[in-house]
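Let us begin with a simple case.
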Amino acid sequence: MAKSTASFRCAECGWQTPKWTGRCGECQAWGTVEETAVPRLVRAGIRAAGYSGSRTAGGQAGRLGGGPVSTAAMPIGKVDAAEARTRPTGLDELDRVLGGGLVPGAVLLLAGEPGVGKSTLLLEAGSLAAAEGPVLYITGEESAAQVRLRADRIGAVHENLFLAAETDLDAVITHVASVQPRLLIIDSVQTIAAADVDGVPGGVTQVREVAAALTAVAKDRAMATILVGHVTKDGSVAGPRTLEHLVDVVLHFEGDRHSRLRMVRAVKNRYGPTDEVGCFDLGEYGMIGLADPSGLFLSRHREPVPGTCVTVTLEGRRPLLAEVQALVGPSFLEVPRRVTSGLDASRVGMVLAVLQRRAEVKLGRSDVYVATVGGVRLTEPSVDLAVALAVGSSTANLSLPQGVIAIGEVGLAGEVRNVAGVPRRVTEAERMGYRRAIVPAGSAAAVGGDGGMEIIEAEDVREALQAALRG
């Protein structure tokens, strides 16, 4: 009689082993091998069906006989799609990312660093959603009084917003049965624990069990549920990887703690797009949606300053203007410094190497500092040309004319490559008052010449520098 002896499983890749090991034999991750435990909901279903788990012929025959179904199968054309229509939260920027709002029965995971404003965002969203029906906010990290003080400060008090401080899963489900909310907010999923499951709160086994139970309750009651999740030091969601598979939507809440700008982006969304970004201004009185955040990433100069160049980046489908600043000066060190802020250091290093070799910009004995304005982080390749022009401008101590933007990817051969969405980027720059755009060769036809924007095509980085610095 065949019998499985595997009792330990890697939470990251699913590798199984009959005994515990500190390191996974498949993905080589440390500390991810946990003892497998049958989830509570599965155990309950097994007991209700009277199935003992044996793999004998009798057990197989019982399984082949089937069991009761929850709903009868029907043609897909007769399924009522009204149950899956979105309901707006009241926060336009959040609805933009979600694809219109919350879907009844959907489970969302909102992850972000400590102090970024996750609780403030959800408390405000909960108070706005309470106008349409009861909302239950479960806090496991703060007391109810602490949450009430924050709600008073941001104006998020509503008679249909119910608050409870709980860390036990059974107590949370009891609150749900009592309040009957249309929206459930759990802050956070790592603080909720199931009493009959081994492991500490926030551990792999506990998080998997709690998330599975809350997902089952949400689907059964057609109740939208938002789970707040912690992140690790590398920015990924803490806990088992299966947590992201269990939920319907995964949102990342990002922002520099020294800046007021906050961004919500969808990593996974079963009901909407994953290329939208919501922008918020975190102030003393809560979150304020920013429908037009481009001005936050630009500095104000009375006169042109050497070492500055404006570009247009795409955050999702939204074009945003951002400024790149560079400072180049003589170095007194054996190895000159290369410092970046808000940019990918490896891409900046590549652009510097291209400038030295292909455009003959002397940087070998100079310190180079490159940064963005407003705390924004620019990672897409279309920023390469702006970095090259800013560094070249600072090296020559010549400022770029006002009203100039640069868009393009720089290759190792010095060529300026085309990027996606050039017409949309140029249109946004023109709306913000810019009148000259340096773009890759072949982009002018796509942009068109109907507006007041002068389009300058550049085949390589040397040509782009000459077009920018000659005014």
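The second case is a distinct protein. As before, the sequence precedes its structure tokens.
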Amino acid sequence: MSEWWTYTPSDFLLFSARTYYRLFELYNRDIWPGQLVALALGVVILACLFIRAAWRAKLVAAILAAGWLWVAWAFHAERYTTINWAAHYFAIGFAVEALLLLRAGVVRAEPADMPARSPITVAGIGLFLFALIVQPLIGLMLGRPWSQAEIFGMAPDPTVAATLGILLTTGRRPRWLLMIIPIVWCLISGATLWTMGSQDAWVMPVIALLSVLLAVREALSARPQ
């Protein structure tokens, strides 16, 4: 029997990188053309950030919550559990975040003012665009086929990154309760990808770090002088 110090993190992972990304390939095949609907809803969220209307906060909250609920059920509970027993708990966490998003309403600042009001707001919009456009392309840039692309509202990582971006565009004190589960997922995802040896393992932890730093800066700037 090998000594405990000879083990590496990959020895405790129950699946390989090939199995993990193959899961996304089969998942994308099963839910097609849901990806197009999800991307269209992402564009709707982006438009809502610049529309002055009382209903837009509820619409953004509903779309984000729907994405979290879909990932909780269709990805974590129905598919990821087949290779990772912890996915049951991930599903619960994503469902809880969906309920929190619906309860909070997510975006409450005046949308017409947001882009010019704060660099943090601009950073939040940039993070949302990164999740919507760039994250699905990362796998392609690393040599994975397009059929394994991770799409906002359909896959965990871009859904989490997009939500953190929206939370940074509120133009008010950070909603720390809403950020807890997304930040935790960033760390879990980063650790999983790092253990598998994926080159993009750094992406989600960096997103978490930037989100926390920006939220702290926003909180400090909102304090009375």
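The mean pLDDT is 86. Residues 45 and 60 are 6 Å apart (CA to CA).
Keep these points in mind for the review questions at the end of the chapter.
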